[in-house]
Design goal:
The chain is α+β, with helices and mostly antiparallel strands. Helices cover 16% and strands 36% of the residues. The protein has 6 helices and 19 strands. Helix 2 packs antiparallel against helix 3 (147-158).
Protein backbone atom coordinates (compact mmCIF):
# COMPACT_ATOMS: atom_id res chain seq x y z
CA UNK A 1 0.00 0.00 0.00
CA UNK A 2 1.34 3.42 -0.96
CA UNK A 3 -1.48 5.51 0.44
CA UNK A 4 -5.13 5.40 1.38
CA UNK A 5 -7.94 7.69 2.44
CA UNK A 6 -11.21 6.94 4.23
CA UNK A 7 -14.23 9.15 4.81
CA UNK A 8 -17.22 8.10 6.91
CA UNK A 9 -20.04 10.00 8.63
CA UNK A 10 -21.96 13.20 7.95
CA UNK A 11 -21.38 16.97 7.86
CA UNK A 12 -24.05 18.26 10.27
CA UNK A 13 -25.98 16.85 13.20
CA UNK A 14 -29.39 17.12 11.49
CA UNK A 15 -28.17 15.26 8.40
CA UNK A 16 -28.38 11.51 7.93
CA UNK A 17 -25.19 9.46 7.78
CA UNK A 18 -23.96 8.95 4.23
CA UNK A 19 -22.21 6.07 2.51
CA UNK A 20 -18.58 5.74 3.58
CA UNK A 21 -15.96 5.80 0.85
CA UNK A 22 -12.29 5.00 0.60
CA UNK A 23 -9.50 4.91 -1.95
CA UNK A 24 -6.29 2.89 -1.88
CA UNK A 25 -3.21 3.18 -4.08
CA UNK A 26 -1.21 -0.05 -4.44
CA UNK A 27 2.18 -0.67 -6.02
CA UNK A 28 1.67 -2.69 -9.19
CA UNK A 29 5.13 -2.93 -10.73
CA UNK A 30 4.91 -6.75 -10.73
CA UNK A 31 1.39 -6.68 -12.30
CA UNK A 32 -0.01 -8.39 -9.19
CA UNK A 33 -3.19 -6.29 -9.48
CA UNK A 34 -3.51 -6.56 -13.26
CA UNK A 35 -6.78 -8.46 -13.90
CA UNK A 36 -5.41 -9.79 -17.23
CA UNK A 37 -2.13 -11.16 -15.82
CA UNK A 38 -2.56 -14.93 -15.35
CA UNK A 39 0.63 -15.28 -13.25
CA UNK A 40 -0.69 -12.92 -10.56
CA UNK A 41 -1.46 -14.59 -7.21
CA UNK A 42 -4.78 -12.71 -7.32
CA UNK A 43 -5.72 -13.68 -10.88
CA UNK A 44 -9.47 -13.93 -11.21
CA UNK A 45 -10.01 -11.97 -7.98
CA UNK A 46 -9.10 -8.45 -9.12
CA UNK A 47 -12.76 -7.67 -9.70
CA UNK A 48 -15.40 -5.24 -8.41
CA UNK A 49 -17.51 -6.02 -5.33
CA UNK A 50 -14.77 -7.88 -3.48
CA UNK A 51 -14.67 -6.94 0.19
CA UNK A 52 -11.91 -4.50 1.14
CA UNK A 53 -10.72 -4.26 4.74
CA UNK A 54 -8.30 -1.62 6.04
CA UNK A 55 -6.53 -1.90 9.38
CA UNK A 56 -4.02 0.30 11.19
CA UNK A 57 -2.05 -0.95 14.20
CA UNK A 58 -4.18 -4.08 13.88
CA UNK A 59 -7.41 -2.08 14.42
CA UNK A 60 -10.04 -2.24 11.67
CA UNK A 61 -10.78 1.18 10.16
CA UNK A 62 -13.07 0.34 7.26
CA UNK A 63 -14.88 -2.57 5.61
CA UNK A 64 -16.15 -1.73 2.15
CA UNK A 65 -16.90 -3.21 -1.25
CA UNK A 66 -14.69 -2.38 -4.22
CA UNK A 67 -16.45 -0.33 -6.89
CA UNK A 68 -13.60 0.22 -9.37
CA UNK A 69 -10.03 -0.74 -10.19
CA UNK A 70 -7.97 1.91 -12.02
CA UNK A 71 -4.56 0.92 -13.41
CA UNK A 72 -1.92 3.58 -14.12
CA UNK A 73 1.24 2.77 -16.07
CA UNK A 74 4.12 5.26 -16.20
CA UNK A 75 6.64 5.19 -19.05
CA UNK A 76 9.53 4.53 -16.65
CA UNK A 77 7.78 1.40 -15.42
CA UNK A 78 6.40 2.65 -12.09
CA UNK A 79 2.83 1.34 -12.03
CA UNK A 80 -0.01 1.59 -9.55
CA UNK A 81 -3.44 0.12 -9.04
CA UNK A 82 -6.00 2.41 -7.45
CA UNK A 83 -9.06 1.02 -5.69
CA UNK A 84 -12.27 2.99 -5.11
CA UNK A 85 -14.68 1.43 -2.59
CA UNK A 86 -17.85 2.25 -0.64
CA UNK A 87 -19.67 0.75 2.32
CA UNK A 88 -23.03 -1.03 2.58
CA UNK A 89 -25.06 2.19 2.37
CA UNK A 90 -24.13 2.39 -1.32
CA UNK A 91 -25.72 -1.03 -1.79
CA UNK A 92 -28.90 -0.02 0.08
CA UNK A 93 -29.11 3.19 -1.97
CA UNK A 94 -29.46 1.02 -5.09
CA UNK A 95 -32.21 -1.23 -3.73
CA UNK A 96 -35.95 -0.63 -3.70
CA UNK A 97 -38.93 -1.80 -1.66
CA UNK A 98 -41.66 -4.03 -3.06
CA UNK A 99 -44.34 -1.79 -1.53
CA UNK A 100 -47.27 -2.58 0.74
CA UNK A 101 -48.64 -1.56 4.13
CA UNK A 102 -46.31 -1.88 7.10
CA UNK A 103 -47.23 -3.21 10.54
CA UNK A 104 -47.36 -0.78 13.45
CA UNK A 105 -44.15 -1.61 15.32
CA UNK A 106 -41.02 -0.26 16.96
CA UNK A 107 -38.17 0.98 14.74
CA UNK A 108 -35.88 -1.98 15.42
CA UNK A 109 -38.50 -4.46 14.25
CA UNK A 110 -39.28 -2.35 11.16
CA UNK A 111 -35.62 -2.08 10.18
CA UNK A 112 -35.07 -5.80 10.71
CA UNK A 113 -38.10 -6.64 8.56
CA UNK A 114 -36.76 -4.49 5.72
CA UNK A 115 -33.28 -6.01 5.97
CA UNK A 116 -34.79 -9.52 5.95
CA UNK A 117 -37.02 -8.84 2.93
CA UNK A 118 -36.38 -10.49 -0.42
CA UNK A 119 -35.68 -7.03 -1.85
CA UNK A 120 -32.69 -6.49 0.47
CA UNK A 121 -31.41 -9.74 2.07
CA UNK A 122 -28.92 -7.99 4.36
CA UNK A 123 -26.77 -10.59 6.23
CA UNK A 124 -28.03 -11.32 9.75
CA UNK A 125 -24.45 -11.41 11.09
CA UNK A 126 -23.79 -7.90 9.77
CA UNK A 127 -26.26 -5.90 11.82
CA UNK A 128 -26.56 -4.38 15.29
CA UNK A 129 -30.13 -3.17 15.73
CA UNK A 130 -31.57 -1.53 18.87
CA UNK A 131 -35.25 -1.96 19.76
CA UNK A 132 -36.27 1.70 19.45
CA UNK A 133 -38.54 3.87 21.60
CA UNK A 134 -41.06 5.44 19.17
CA UNK A 135 -44.03 3.45 17.84
CA UNK A 136 -44.16 3.63 14.06
CA UNK A 137 -47.52 3.71 12.34
CA UNK A 138 -48.75 1.32 9.64
CA UNK A 139 -47.66 3.48 6.72
CA UNK A 140 -48.06 2.56 3.07
CA UNK A 141 -44.67 1.87 1.54
CA UNK A 142 -44.51 2.94 -2.09
CA UNK A 143 -43.50 0.48 -4.77
CA UNK A 144 -39.85 1.04 -5.73
CA UNK A 145 -39.22 3.34 -2.75
CA UNK A 146 -35.51 3.67 -2.04
CA UNK A 147 -34.43 1.36 0.79
CA UNK A 148 -31.76 3.64 2.28
CA UNK A 149 -34.03 6.68 2.20
CA UNK A 150 -36.79 4.78 4.00
CA UNK A 151 -34.39 3.50 6.68
CA UNK A 152 -33.16 7.05 7.22
CA UNK A 153 -36.73 8.28 7.72
CA UNK A 154 -36.99 5.71 10.51
CA UNK A 155 -33.69 7.01 11.94
CA UNK A 156 -35.00 10.59 12.02
CA UNK A 157 -38.36 9.53 13.45
CA UNK A 158 -36.56 7.83 16.35
CA UNK A 159 -33.89 10.56 16.77
CA UNK A 160 -31.35 7.75 16.63
CA UNK A 161 -28.28 6.85 14.60
CA UNK A 162 -28.13 4.65 11.49
CA UNK A 163 -24.72 3.99 9.96
CA UNK A 164 -22.29 1.35 8.72
CA UNK A 165 -19.56 0.76 11.29
CA UNK A 166 -15.92 0.11 10.53
CA UNK A 167 -16.50 -3.67 10.54
CA UNK A 168 -19.21 -3.37 7.88
CA UNK A 169 -22.16 -3.86 10.25
CA UNK A 170 -25.37 -1.90 9.83
CA UNK A 171 -25.87 -0.18 13.20
CA UNK A 172 -29.11 1.34 14.50
CA UNK A 173 -28.75 3.14 17.82
CA UNK A 174 -32.11 4.16 19.24
CA UNK A 175 -32.75 7.40 21.14
CA UNK A 176 -31.59 5.90 24.44
CA UNK A 177 -28.30 4.59 23.01
CA UNK A 178 -27.73 7.86 21.13
CA UNK A 179 -27.55 9.85 24.38
CA UNK A 180 -23.99 10.78 25.40
CA UNK A 181 -22.27 8.99 28.28
CA UNK A 182 -19.78 11.26 30.05
CA UNK A 183 -17.52 8.51 31.36
CA UNK A 184 -16.70 7.33 27.82
CA UNK A 185 -15.34 10.67 26.63
CA UNK A 186 -11.89 10.80 25.05
CA UNK A 187 -9.92 13.89 26.07
CA UNK A 188 -8.43 16.02 23.27
CA UNK A 189 -6.41 19.07 24.28
CA UNK A 190 -3.80 21.56 23.11
CA UNK A 191 -2.23 22.04 26.56
CA UNK A 192 -0.92 18.56 27.34
CA UNK A 193 -3.95 17.44 29.38
CA UNK A 194 -5.32 15.22 26.60
CA UNK A 195 -4.43 13.71 23.26
CA UNK A 196 -2.64 16.31 21.14
CA UNK A 197 -4.22 17.55 17.92
CA UNK A 198 -2.42 19.47 15.17
CA UNK A 199 -5.30 21.48 13.67
CA UNK A 200 -8.64 22.83 14.87
CA UNK A 201 -11.60 24.13 12.86
CA UNK A 202 -14.18 26.28 14.66
CA UNK A 203 -17.55 27.41 13.30
CA UNK A 204 -19.85 30.03 14.78
CA UNK A 205 -22.92 30.79 12.75
CA UNK A 206 -26.47 30.06 11.73
CA UNK A 207 -26.17 26.93 9.59
CA UNK A 208 -27.97 25.04 12.38
CA UNK A 209 -30.12 27.92 13.63
CA UNK A 210 -33.81 26.92 13.66
CA UNK A 211 -36.26 28.73 15.90
CA UNK A 212 -39.39 27.29 14.30
CA UNK A 213 -39.88 23.58 13.67
CA UNK A 214 -42.64 21.94 11.65
CA UNK A 215 -42.74 18.22 12.30
CA UNK A 216 -45.32 15.93 10.74
CA UNK A 217 -46.08 12.24 10.35
CA UNK A 218 -47.51 10.51 7.29
CA UNK A 219 -49.78 8.66 9.71
CA UNK A 220 -52.88 10.82 9.57
CA UNK A 221 -53.87 10.47 13.21
CA UNK A 222 -50.43 11.72 14.38
CA UNK A 223 -50.77 15.03 12.55
CA UNK A 224 -48.32 17.93 12.46
CA UNK A 225 -46.82 20.01 15.27
CA UNK A 226 -45.25 23.47 15.16
CA UNK A 227 -42.90 24.74 17.87
CA UNK A 228 -41.53 28.29 18.17
CA UNK A 229 -38.64 29.88 20.00
CA UNK A 230 -40.07 33.38 20.26
CA UNK A 231 -37.03 35.06 21.83
CA UNK A 232 -34.79 33.65 19.12
CA UNK A 233 -37.23 34.72 16.41
CA UNK A 234 -37.17 38.27 17.77
CA UNK A 235 -33.36 38.31 17.69
CA UNK A 236 -32.63 36.48 14.43
CA UNK A 237 -35.86 36.35 12.45
CA UNK A 238 -37.80 33.17 11.79
CA UNK A 239 -35.66 30.24 10.64
CA UNK A 240 -37.78 27.15 9.92
CA UNK A 241 -36.85 23.47 9.93
CA UNK A 242 -39.48 21.23 8.32
CA UNK A 243 -39.82 17.43 8.27
CA UNK A 244 -43.30 16.13 7.48
CA UNK A 245 -42.40 12.68 6.12
CA UNK A 246 -41.87 10.93 9.46
CA UNK A 247 -43.59 7.78 10.72
CA UNK A 248 -44.79 8.40 14.29
CA UNK A 249 -48.03 6.67 15.21
CA UNK A 250 -48.78 9.07 18.11
CA UNK A 251 -49.25 12.83 18.04
CA UNK A 252 -47.43 13.17 21.38
CA UNK A 253 -44.21 11.92 19.74
CA UNK A 254 -44.61 14.42 16.89
CA UNK A 255 -45.10 17.26 19.38
CA UNK A 256 -42.15 16.15 21.51
CA UNK A 257 -39.73 16.11 18.57
CA UNK A 258 -40.85 19.56 17.41
CA UNK A 259 -40.27 21.01 20.89
CA UNK A 260 -36.98 19.17 21.36
CA UNK A 261 -35.53 20.43 18.08
CA UNK A 262 -36.50 24.05 18.60
CA UNK A 263 -34.99 23.95 22.11
CA UNK A 264 -31.77 22.47 20.76
CA UNK A 265 -31.29 24.63 17.66
CA UNK A 266 -32.86 28.03 18.44
CA UNK A 267 -29.52 29.76 19.12
CA UNK A 268 -26.42 30.22 16.93
CA UNK A 269 -23.88 27.47 17.41
CA UNK A 270 -20.25 27.89 18.45
CA UNK A 271 -18.93 24.53 17.32
CA UNK A 272 -15.64 22.71 17.30
CA UNK A 273 -16.18 21.49 13.74
CA UNK A 274 -13.14 19.24 13.38
CA UNK A 275 -9.72 18.39 14.77
CA UNK A 276 -6.85 16.68 12.97
CA UNK A 277 -4.55 14.32 14.82
CA UNK A 278 -1.16 13.20 13.47
CA UNK A 279 -0.69 9.68 14.79
CA UNK A 280 3.08 10.03 14.49
CA UNK A 281 3.09 12.83 17.09
CA UNK A 282 1.32 10.91 19.87
CA UNK A 283 2.05 7.71 21.76
CA UNK A 284 1.06 4.29 20.45
CA UNK A 285 -1.52 3.95 23.22
CA UNK A 286 -3.05 7.31 22.30
CA UNK A 287 -2.96 6.43 18.60
CA UNK A 288 -4.84 3.23 19.34
CA UNK A 289 -7.44 5.26 21.25
CA UNK A 290 -7.97 7.43 18.17
CA UNK A 291 -8.03 4.42 15.85
CA UNK A 292 -10.67 2.83 18.08
CA UNK A 293 -13.09 5.76 17.79
CA UNK A 294 -16.46 4.99 16.18
CA UNK A 295 -19.22 7.32 15.02
CA UNK A 296 -21.16 8.55 18.05
CA UNK A 297 -18.08 8.58 20.32
CA UNK A 298 -18.03 11.37 22.91
CA UNK A 299 -14.98 13.64 23.13
CA UNK A 300 -14.05 16.30 25.69
CA UNK A 301 -12.21 18.99 23.75
CA UNK A 302 -10.05 21.75 25.21
CA UNK A 303 -8.91 24.60 22.95
CA UNK A 304 -6.87 27.68 23.89
CA UNK A 305 -6.92 30.05 20.90
CA UNK A 306 -3.40 31.36 20.21
CA UNK A 307 -2.44 30.08 23.69
CA UNK A 308 -4.35 32.97 25.25
CA UNK A 309 -6.29 31.90 28.36
CA UNK A 310 -8.94 31.03 29.27
CA UNK A 311 -9.32 27.76 27.38
CA UNK A 312 -12.63 26.85 25.74
CA UNK A 313 -13.82 23.38 26.75
CA UNK A 314 -16.77 21.53 25.24
CA UNK A 315 -18.15 18.03 24.93
CA UNK A 316 -18.79 16.93 21.36
CA UNK A 317 -20.07 13.88 19.50
CA UNK A 318 -18.03 12.43 16.64
CA UNK A 319 -20.16 12.58 13.47
CA UNK A 320 -17.43 12.00 10.87
CA UNK A 321 -14.09 10.19 10.68
CA UNK A 322 -11.54 10.69 7.90
CA UNK A 323 -8.12 9.12 7.38
CA UNK A 324 -5.25 10.21 5.15
CA UNK A 325 -2.32 7.81 5.28
CA UNK A 326 0.83 7.13 3.27
CA UNK A 327 4.21 5.56 3.99
CA UNK A 328 5.32 8.64 5.98
CA UNK A 329 2.28 10.03 7.82
CA UNK A 330 -1.14 8.98 9.05
CA UNK A 331 -3.58 11.76 9.94
CA UNK A 332 -7.07 11.30 11.35
CA UNK A 333 -9.66 14.09 11.18
CA UNK A 334 -12.66 13.90 13.50
CA UNK A 335 -15.77 15.96 12.70
CA UNK A 336 -18.04 16.99 15.57
CA UNK A 337 -21.46 18.08 16.70
CA UNK A 338 -20.98 20.13 19.85
CA UNK A 339 -23.20 19.10 22.76
CA UNK A 340 -24.30 22.49 24.05
CA UNK A 341 -27.79 21.11 24.66
CA UNK A 342 -27.98 17.74 26.41
CA UNK A 343 -30.97 16.37 28.33
CA UNK A 344 -30.43 15.51 31.99
CA UNK A 345 -29.19 11.91 32.10
CA UNK A 346 -29.67 10.16 35.43
CA UNK A 347 -26.46 8.90 37.08
CA UNK A 348 -24.21 10.11 34.25
CA UNK A 349 -20.91 11.44 35.61
CA UNK A 350 -21.03 14.50 33.33
CA UNK A 351 -24.64 15.04 32.22
CA UNK A 352 -26.31 13.93 35.45
CA UNK A 353 -25.05 16.70 37.75
CA UNK A 354 -27.10 19.44 39.35
CA UNK A 355 -26.07 23.06 38.73
CA UNK A 356 -24.21 22.16 35.51
CA UNK A 357 -25.17 21.39 31.92
CA UNK A 358 -28.94 21.27 31.37
CA UNK A 359 -29.66 22.01 35.04
CA UNK A 360 -27.07 24.80 35.34
Amino acid sequence: VRQYSIKRGKSRQLDNYQAGVCSVVLSNNDRAFDPTYAASPYYGQVIPKRELRITSNGIRQATMLIDDWNLDYAPQGDSTASVAASDGFARLANQTLAGGTATSQLPGARISAILDSADVLWPTDKRNIDTGTITLGADVQAVDANVLNYLQIIETTESGRLFIDRSGNLVFDDANAARPVGSTAINLADDGTGIKYTAMQVVYGSELLYNQTVIGSVIGSAGTAVANGTASQAAYGIQTYTRTDLLMANSSDVDYLARQLVTQYQNPEFRFEAVTIDLGQISTAQANQILGIELGQLCNIKFTPNNIAPAIQKYAEVISISHSADTVRHQVTLGFSTLDYVPFILDDTVFGKLDTGPLG
